[in-house]
Amino acid sequence: MEFKTHISVKSLNVWYGQHQALNNISIDIPDKKITAIIGPSGCGKTTLLKSFNRLIDLQDGISVNGQVLVDGEDIYSPKVEVMDLRKKMGLLSQKPQVLPMSIYENVAYGPRIHGLKDKKKLNEIVHRYLKESSLWNEVKDRLNSPASKLSIGQQQRLCLARGLAVEPEIILGDEPTSALDPVSSERIEQKFLALKDKYTIILVTHSLRQAKRLADYVIFLYLGNIIEHGFAQEIFENPKYVKTQAYINGKFIEEHKINRELNLKGTICPDNFVKAKLALEELDSGQVLKIIVDYEPAISEVPKAMEYEGHKILEVKRLNKTDWEIIIQKYDEGYII
Amino acid sequence: MVKKIIKALRWLKCPSLCSGLLAVVHYFSAFFNAFSGSNFQRKFEENIFKALMIISAFTVTGILIFILAVIFLKGFPAINLDMLIKTPKGGYYLGKEGGILNAILGSIVLGFGATFLAVMVTVPVVFYLNLYLKKNSRLALSVRFFLDVLWGIPSIVYGAFGFTVMIFFGLKASLLAGIITVALLIIPIMARSMDEVLKMIPFELKEASFAIGATRLETAMKVVFKQALPGLMTAVLIAFGRGIGDAAAVLFTASFTDSLPYSLFKPVATLPLAIFFQLGTPFPEVQERGYASALVLTVIILFISILSRILSKKFTRNIIK
Lengths: 337, 321
Fold this sequence. Notes:
The structure holds 2 protein chains of 2 kinds.
Chain A: E1 5-16, E2 19-30, E3 34-38, H1 45-52, E4 62-70, E5 73-74, H2 82-87, E6 89-92, H3 103-113, H4 119-132, H5 136-139, H6 152-164, E7 170-174, H7 182-195, E8 200-204, H8 208-214, E9 217-222, E10 225-231, H9 232-237, H10 242-248, E11 260-263, H11 271-282, E12 288-293, H12 298-308, E13 312-318, E14 324-329
Parallel strand pairs in A: 3-8, 3-9, 6-7, 7-8, 11-12
Antiparallel strand pairs in A: 1-2, 1-4, 4-5, 9-10, 12-14, 13-14
Helix pairs in contact in A: 3-4, 3-6, 4-6
Chain B: H1 2-11, H2 15-34, H3 40-75, H4 81-85, H5 101-132, H6 138-152, H7 155-169, H8 175-199, H9 203-211, H10 216-244, H11 248-253, H12 271-279, H13 284-315
């Protein structure tokens, strides 16, 4: 099957400080289709999504190389106006984030900042996009009341209307239904299906069932790498790679490359923490330490203290009746993604 | 034993300590009840710290109420209409006649002027720190560090600094010099409190605005400002209260006078200095008038903070909680 490309990513690398979040990503995203980005948490799904509208620029200590072509134009070239680029894309975030204004002003905010002053046209736009996100009937009598008074499902639809009001070509969804109740999620999903004739939709989701219901095209990311991508049917029915298979069948076991192992059985807090810390100091940033403890308070205290130190806890797993395994990744800069 | 202490405290008419101690007794007994339980140590910690918190809360409020009571009891009998609508007779408040209208008006003008000037300087600084600079940028860190240092400088040093600058330019003590010096004094206070308020604005809110294609300025003015308004208002009030109540900064710079404030370039009288002079005299009647002045100053600050809170409610109905 062939498709028309809307966004084309070419060998994109993204680093947060020392940590590489995206590793040599190359992918074409089809025009006017729903593309789902799936993968375990912390694999770089959101980073990839936000690299499309350059929202990752706002993060501290970020560095990007590679190309992202939207309509054939490299958005990371210095000539590109970020404001115009972002206008092309509406974003729905994990938790609906309405602006501290009235319902009307929330939708009118986008067109207003892009220079529309005509009251009549603004009214028209607000009406049209509130209808498009099927919120109009619920709010038509209280357009001037605060947006924060709406229910969380309504807020997400208001965010959709706000995003659509600047007339974008692409809708980016960063797990847009994860904070919503099933009924509201269903409505948003229906909306996406209805909108895909007009917009290119890119959806980050951790719900495989949602990806199955909605997606035409699926990208499977794992630890910053694209493992597999293709049309939804192919990926879900006939995945080529073992990792994809495992993830789709829900048997995904995260494997970590362990750089050092430490047996701390028989030590109590904070001795075990200090020993683990000393061992971590010998490792490089990004390397992984596995410790085994049998002292019960350590199971909660050591990870807490390690996270406080800026390291990342990858896994806490019970081995047998007494022993627990804690896997810690070292971070020098203290970046936690 | 404990009961005896409480009785003694009650006799000393010290309500805050008394109730604080009661709370300790209460929670100690709760601890002993919990002793038989398996989680006794955790409950013990919980109760001890809860008791300590209650004691501190009562002590702080108690002291505050005590101060207000002293000012009110000593100052209220000395207040009369003449005091509020007349200027002093007998030179720098030392007489028993006339009023402190010059100081009331002077303080209000000086307080508002300095606060206005400080807001003009502070708002751009804090928005620059929070919206334009990255979180750990060296510039932001050093600006915050310097503001913290400036916060700690005593107001008399600001006064002396203002005085030195005035002498250098050959100027005399005036309302304008007072306004500028007090503004310098309250800028660090205002800036650091506003900074903390803006730090609390969720990143996602700014991100939502940027995602539509807003510039940083639009995001600052139309989104962040609206969301932060109640906090910013509090910061302004804290700074205003600090500025209007400061005597040392205006001692050399705004000086003192018996006439009403009518020019930016003439000396102006202020309430803190009026209190300072009146309490410094050996005459009980004049000292009482000092307490009355203190009462007037307190009422002005109270009135303005209540008024601004009522007003700010009007503008903050849209904020996201």
